[in-house]
Amino acid sequence: MDLMNRAIYFSILWLVLLIALGPNTNISVFGHTFSGDESASFLTLVEMMKIESQLAEEQLPSNVTVAKEHAEHMTELLTANDTKEISERNPRLATELNGTLTDFVSAFETESPSESEVKDKVSNISDILSEVVSARIDKEQLNNITVKAEVVNDLVGKSLEHYGSALGMEENGHDENNTSATNTTENVNNETAKIVDEGDYQSAQAAISRAIDTYNEIKPNENTNSSELGDSLSSLKSKIDSKSPFDQIDKIVDDKITPLLNDIFKLNLAEGEEHAEGGEEHAEGGEEHEEEQTNASSENDTHETDSD
């Protein structure tokens, strides 16, 4: 085979491979195309960044200390690896996002941060994050039902994580803080947990509210368990709002929410997980089952929401 024929042969072979791979693969020729579980984790990150920036703005008029805590939480969410992944798609956005977050935290370093200035910065952060999502997440993944269901699961995990921190739980377990006398008080017929970190408590409330909103976007009318899952998420929110002991909240997740997510969306999440770090394991979206989740995402790639 001469040189010209060899070149034509390999060119045709390459084209055949591209056609065979088609749109149903997670391989990208010119960059990193992220799988369903990676996309869900990143979308959860973005939602939590929005939550923390909004809480910082809301708390500023009444409690500067808590507002600053939310601002710090937001900047701590974005890791160097996250920035690298954003930069793979759009270097300008990665640089702009980092600069905007630094500028946002700096606004809280004065004794009396300007409310109007912080409001403008929160709006700017939201706009940049929207651009980042468009650049970082493929449209197919963004509209994928399985990916959004994983976001619901991750937000529930974030809510548990922050609620555990709000109770002052140790990282090695939550036995000490479930119903101990030092962390609960008696209110007639209701046992109430003692909140030791108001900022984390507010984040827990906001995360479960966002999980409910996300679930309502994808709630399947034809599934008999869809209403039960909605009720269970609402029950979880009610327990957090009423400052119930952690074990009561954890039980709702283990006994209701996780099994129902598995049944409705085929997520293959581990059921009956120990949330040893205040929900952190759940917040990671079941990384131990990453392969199963990716397979489930692939099977559901054709189920997209009506909105683009």
Can you describe what's shown?
The protein is mostly helical and 308 residues long. The chain has two domains: 32-141, Four Helix Bundle (Hemerythrin (Met), subunit A), CATH 1.20.120; 144-299. Helices cover 67% and strands 3% of the residues. It is built from 14 helices and two strands. The longest helix is centred in the first third of the chain and has 24 residues, at 36-59. The radius of gyration is 22 Å and the shape is globular.
Q: What topology does this entry show?
A:
Layout: H1 3-21, H2 36-59, H3 64-77, H4 80-89, H5 91-106, H6 115-136, H7 139-142, H8 145-166, H9 175-178, E1 184-187, E2 190-193, H10 198-218, H11 226-241, H12 246-265, H13 280-283, H14 290-299
Antiparallel strand pairs: 1-2
Helix pairs in contact: 2-3, 2-6, 2-8, 2-10, 3-5, 3-10, 4-5, 5-6, 8-10, 8-12, 10-11, 11-12
